Amino acid sequence: MPATDKQGETMDIRTYGDPVLRRTAKPVETIDDEIRDICRRMVEEMLRADGVGLAAPQIGIPLRIIVLDVEGEFHVLINPELLFVSEETETGIEGCLSVPGVHAEVARSAQATIAGTTLGGERVEITGEGLLARAMQHEMDHINGHLFVDHVSQVKRRSLIKEFERKKRESEE
Ligand code: ZN
Prior knowledge:
The chain is an alpha+beta fold. It has a single domain, classed as Peptide Deformylase. 28% of the residues lie in helices and 28% in strands. It contains three helices and seven strands; from the N terminus they run H-E-E-E-E-E-E-E-H-H. The protein has helices at residues 33-48, 130-143, 154-172, and strands spanning 53-55, 65-70, 73-85, 89-94, 104-109, 111-117, 123-129. The protein has a five-stranded antiparallel β-sheet, with helices on both faces. Strands 4-5 form a two-stranded antiparallel sheet. A hairpin with a 2-residue loop joins strand 2 and strand 3. The longest helix has 19 residues, at 154-172. The radius of gyration is 15 Å and the shape is globular. It binds zinc ion. Zinc ion (ZN) binds at residues 1, 96-98, 138, 142.
C-alpha cells in the first residue's frame, strides 16, 4: 500500500495484470538465506516506493511474506495469519503499489490482529487499528491473490482499471 500519492520508483514491483498477483502464495518452509534476501529486497522496494506495506507476490515471489511500515510500526512477517478482524468497519482511501496511480474508498475492519514469524524465528502478534489495520488486511489480501480493487463495485473496478491502464500507457509514451 502506498503512503501517499507520490509516485515512487516502482520498476521492480509487479503491476495489475501480472498473474503472480492472483496466485495464492505458498507458506515459507525454512527461514534461510534466500528468504532473508527476499525480505531485504521487499523492505528496499517498500522504502523506495514510499509504501506502508508490501507482499512478496508484488516483487514476483509467490510466498507468504509481508512487510509493514506504518506510523512507526515496522514488521517483517513470515507466514502471517489473520487472527481477528472487528465487525466494525471503517471506510478510507486506499491505493496499491501494484495498481499505481489510482485510489478508491474501501471499507475494512477497523481493528485487526495478525500473527506471524519474524526473521529471527520468533512468533509475534500485532494488533492495530486505523491505517495499520487497513495495511495488514491489504497485505494479507495480496498473499491470497486478492487486490484492493476487488473490494469495490464492478462498475467502480472497471473505471479504476481503465484509469490505471491509461496512466500506464501515458507513462510509457
Ligand atoms: Zn497492494
